[in-house]
Amino acid sequence: MRVGFIGLGRMGLPMARNLLKAGHEVAVYNRTHSRAEELQAEGARVAATPAEASSGAVLITMLADDAAVEAIILGA
Fold it and tell me: What is the rounded average pLDDT of the residues 49-69?
């Protein structure tokens, strides 16, 4: 399954990693680009924008709070 994953902090990084280990095609985005690059070596596709990460069948966000969700989704 094609999965988009936005937010690679303490919870998001291991969750995205588990999706990769399970054989899913995962596109990742994180405001701190280096966090996304950690998963590139494990098969993740690093998305340049949140919209690019959202092109799969499923989108998972693991963000800190409502303000972070609004900033990512609405571009605020």
Answer: 93
Write down the pTM of the prediction. Answer: 0.91
**At 26, phi and psi to the nearest 5?**
-120, 125
Give all strands of the β-sheet with 58-61 in edge-to-edge order.
45-46, 25-29, 2-6, 58-61
Are β-strands 2-6 and 25-29 bridged in parallel, bridged antiparallel, or unpaired? parallel
| Buried-exposed string 18-57: b where 16+ CB fall within 10 A, e elsewhere | ebbeeebebbbbbeeeebbebbeeeebbbbeebeebbebe
- What does the pLDDT look like over 3-58, one tens digit per residue? 999 999 999 999 999 999 999 999 999 989 999 999 999 999 999 999 999 988 99
CB-based contact 49:75 (threshold 8 Å)? no
